[in-house]
Design a protein that fits this description.
single chain; about 160 residues; alpha/beta; Leucine-rich repeat, LRR (right-handed beta-alpha superhelix); five-stranded parallel beta sheet; two-stranded parallel ribbon; repeat; signal; LRRNT domain-containing protein
């Protein structure tokens, strides 16, 4: 009679003791997810944002990653993102509404890329953005209304 109860006990202990395994489980192969809600995908050689990032990611570091392009769905499924570092890549343009899935983003680093223009839709949806870094790009055109929706911007 006790056999049924004891076989479930080790499984219960495993579930209680190892919930942190889920943090690493959803980590892309060429990234590191050692810290809770923080993902490092640096010094990669990939032209795109990796798939399969943990949905609770709050800090995403992708500098020196060889990024060439972003798509409208690059950041879909990352609603908790607060910091996004895309510096030192090869980005030459920003698709319309690319950051719209990130309403809680506070810090965005796009420095040291090859961006040539900022449109009025480049930062659409980033109402809580406080810090935006665009230095060391090749900016030629900045739309007059490019920063109008960024009411929380500090620097």
């Amino acid at each position: 009679p006790h056999g049924g109860a004891s076989t479930g006990l080790p499984l219960m202990w495993a579930l209680l003791l190892f919930p942190a395994a889920s943090l690493v489980q959803g980590c892309p192969a060429d990234c590191q997810c050692n810290q809770p809600q923080t993902v490092f995908c640096i010094a990669r050689s990939s032209p795109a944002i990796p798939q399969g990032l943990p949905p609770d990611t709050a800090h995403l570091y992708m500098f020196e990653s060889g990024l060439h392009t972003l798509s409208e769905d690059s950041f879909a499924g990352l609603p908790a993102l607060r910091l996004l570092d895309l510096s030192q890549n090869l980005l030459s343009s920003l698709p319309r509404n690319v950051f719209q899935p990130l309403p809680g983003l506070h810090n965005l680093d796009l420095s040291s890329n090859q961006l040539q223009e900022v449109t009025n839709e480049s930062f659409h949806g980033l109402r809580q953005l406080e810090r935006l870094y665009l230095d060391r790009n090749q900016l030629q055109t900045i739309h007059p209304a490019a920063f109008d929706s960024l009411g929380s911007l500090l620097e």
